[in-house]
Design brief:
- By secondary structure, the chain is of the alpha+beta class.
- The protein has 3 domains: 6-40; 56-110, no CATH class; 122-218, Bacterial fluorinating enzyme like (Elongation Factor Tu (Ef-tu), domain 3), CATH 2.40.30.
- 20% of the residues lie in helices and 27% in strands.
- The protein has 5 helices and 12 strands.
- The chain has helices at residues 19-30, 56-61, 85-99, 152-157, 203-207, and strands at 6-10, 35-40, 67-68, 109-110, 122-124, 127-135, 141-146, 159-164, 167-171, 184-188, 193-198, 214-218.
- The strands form 3 sheets. Strands 5, 6, 7, 8, 9, 10, 11 and 12 form an 8-stranded antiparallel sheet that branches.
């Protein structure tokens, strides 16, 4: 008798939407004979970062969030240097959290954390003007347009009218595989923002654009 393999799932996805089901669907499509065991889908996610606005996108996206000032030095690596807090503060805090330490013991809850307003697209003569928020490690351009900013017809037809630099972008694809090699196209990234990429290439290098570059979207 062949023993059926077991895959356990431990996530922070919750069970109120499709995410866990999607994971299971992918697993079972590859191996229908596997046993899937749900450990928990309510793991509390933690972000360890300086209070300088770097988590502004997280604050904007999450409906419910609790922020603590991790100022209990017992959890720091001593002595704490003035120039390497990544090693002496952030890394130890993350390790203690992963080990099971309670976040409440690491510092008081705060509400005056730094949060920067994300730039929103602005209407301009029948178009919306956005911007490249950042360039990821693959050269993909993450814009400040969200999926809901696109015309309904774009989602349905896969056709979009974007302009970045001198490049017109007319295709909206689901995956990189649907883009032709070297083709510039748009897609919805995992964070819900419209991104511009190049199949098997860097959009940033191909278009010679980067963070702060203007992006135009035709409204219709």
């Amino acid at each position: 008798m062949v023993t059926r393999p077991i895959i356990t799932l431990t996530t922070d996805y919750g069970t109120s939407d499709h995410l866990v089901g999607t994971l299971k669907g992918v697993i079972l499509k590859i191996n229908p004979d596997v046993n899937i065991v749900d450990i928990t889908h309510d793991v509390t996610p933690y972000f360890v970062a300086p209070d300088n606005g770097v988590l502004s996108l997280v604050y904007e996206r999450e409906e419910s969030i609790l922020v603590r000032h991790a100022n209990v030095e017992h959890y720091y690596l001593q002595p704490v240097s003035k120039t390497f807090h990544g090693r002496d503060v952030f890394a130890p805090i993350a390790a203690w959290l992963a080990k099971g330490s309670q976040a409440a013991s690491m510092g008081d809850e705060i509400t005056d954390y730094k949060k920067f307003a994300m730039p929103r697209p602005k209407a301009a003569e029948g178009k919306s003007k956005g911007v490249v928020l950042r360039v990821d490690s693959f050269g993909n351009l993450i814009t400040n347009f969200r999926a809901e900013d696109l015309p309904t017809t774009a989602i349905e037809s896969g056709c979009v009218q974007l302009q970045i630099g001198t490049q017109a972008v007319s295709r909206l694809v689901d995956t990189f595989a649907k883009g032709n090699p070297g083709e510039v196209f748009a897609y919805i990234g995992s964070n819900g923002f419209v991104e511009i990429g190049v199949n098997r290439g860097s959009a940033s290098k191909a278009l010679n654009v980067g963070r702060g570059s203007a992006v135009l979207l035709a409204n219709g």
